[in-house]
Amino acid sequence: MDVQTLTFIFVGATFALYIGIAIWSRAGNTDDFYVAGGGVPPLANGMATAADWMSAASFISMAGIISFVGRDGSVYLMGWTGGYVLLALLLAPYLRKFGKYTVPDFVGDRYYSNIARVVAVVCVLFVSFTYVAGQMRGVGIVFSRFLEVEITTGVLIGMTIVFFYAVLGGMKGITYTQVAQYCVLIFAFLVPAIFISMLMTGNFVPQIGFGSTLADGSNIYLLDKLDQLSLELGFGAYTEGKKSTVDIFFITAALMVGTAGLPHVIVRFFTVPKVRDARISAGYALLFIAFLYTAAPAVASFARVNLINTVENAEYKKTPAWFKNWENTNLIAWVDKNQDGKIQYFSGQAFNGKPKFLDIRGSEGQRRVENEPTDNSNELYIDRDIMVLANPEIAGLPNWVIALVAAGGLAAALSTAAGLLLVISTSVSHDLLKKIFLKNITDRQELFFARISAALAILIAGYFGVYPPGFVAQVVAFAFGLAAASFFPVILMGIFSKRMNKEGAISGMITGLVFTASYIIYFKFINPSANSAENWWFGISPEGIGTLGMLFNFIVSNLVSQITAPPPKEIQSLVDKIRVPRGAGASYHHIKS
Amino acid sequence: MIDSHRPKEKVYWKQNIRIVLSLLAVWFFVSFGMGILLVDFLDGFRFFGFKLGFWIAQQGSIFCFVALIFVYVYRMNKLDHEYDVDEDQDNFVPDDNYYPDKESKE
Predict the structure, then answer these.
(1) Using CA atoms, how far apart are residues A531 and A542, in angstroms rounded to an integer?
(2) Which residues does chain B have within 8 Å of residue A252's beta carbon, measured at their own beta carbons?
(3) Which CATH superfamily is A3-203+244-306+397-474+572-588 part of?
């Protein structure tokens, strides 16, 4: 069977499964809708958290980025996993004991202030919308490449599916769909990784194949071969760093702390019955994430070797079908600078900016671009996002593996989108309406508003998917930077300091937010030409500035809380209660009433 | 009512902080220490087909993070039990008096 038929079958089957689960697990009340009734088993919560967290960025983009940057890719590998240690040790158990629905709930109650609650809601909405736009773009890419439908149609189908299980099922529907989606995505990521590892190193565990010798009889280690190839083409050794140590340090820290502060991840720990379950499910979540994250650097290096071997000095006319397929989706471009009909692939950009394709073909049949070629000898443009999706084709794997990867990419994007949409709808219906504007609504009405806001959020997300704002890639730094500079310090101090009061928390959050946002806006939007190491503060790029914002938040909130009145007695005893596990089951039952 | 205000719970909280800080020290040393600050030095050593620093930065640190969380879970469950603040007796008994002042605060 051809790839397209197989993809239809795989994607269709997984979508049917998600809808079936949604019908089976409909939400009956707000408690079901917000936290799945608080009764999710820890192992299931671990899987759901892993799927919730691993987005289109983890599944589709990350290995591709690592493939192109080499060792510096460790900022993502360590940053997006190390955050779980902070989450498990510093936040999850205590937030579970607190036993409410959302992050703004905690901020609003702990700091006895609706201003703090509103600031938190604004941060939640900003972080979540930023993120969800990227997921919808991922859905669009997969649909347009593998099913050859218009991106708009693809996004509409994705929206319908998410609408079905997020609006009907709420957190309960999302949780059990995410369990299924985790299974689909991990299978889809590991199967091609195992195949390619077998082909290249003869070792079927990709994590070990990564450090093995090549299977071509040369007895050279894969990574040594890759270093040698990269140096020959002028890229610099794959296993050596190119960014400054300071920048790597700050970016890693911002991603770790940002991960621990992301509201859609934190809220997953409200869904388990006990504090003990919150702790262990953080462990399971990271274990399930690690299956993908330890395979990703291996996949990145395999893909890099394969890519160089396939395209460098190859005749365009003889390139495999995948090369032309991706060229047709605008993600590969080739300019024949020396008119020899062969692809020369070296370090440097083939032309400035993203390719703008003309409607004409060149002498070899390649698509022409209107971009002005640069004067280096590199002739090839490759979008990093295609590496994971194209990898099975590059390695010549069977068609069903290619179809599986498409279903996996969709599972990763949809599971994260659903988690984010839920957080958005909860913060509107619960934190804004129920807690501030419409205090008298019944549980039934609140559930109705939750569904309406989920539906609206899906429409907005879909709009971003169809008309992706050009700044999606830039604003990802925003999501993590803001989460790191706003939520993390406030939640941490709320648990570990009884002295922290509302004045401290609010001024800290605002300081962190304003500082981080202005630094990123300045370098990304106002003055992008100045965005280079010599203009950065202490050599910290906008991606890593959230770490500094977090430090400022800590300093300001502590200073302000020292010179203002301590929090009321009942807040101090609330903190005492959060710190011991016993009674978490009781608070779970209490929130039902 | 059990909270961290009473003497026994104060000691429990101190022990809790000690466990967290010791594990975070390992977390920091492995990721920021070996994976970033000392990475070039460690690259001088081989670990199978890897340079050691590169391996820790891209793979080894992740194994370590997973192990840290499971050690934390084990040690905290033991501590909860020792100080009799675990949830074994909770059994999901509804207790509307648990947060007696909850509604009035809002």
Answers:
(1) 8
(2) 31-32, 35-36
(3) Sodium/glucose cotransporter (1.20.1730.10)
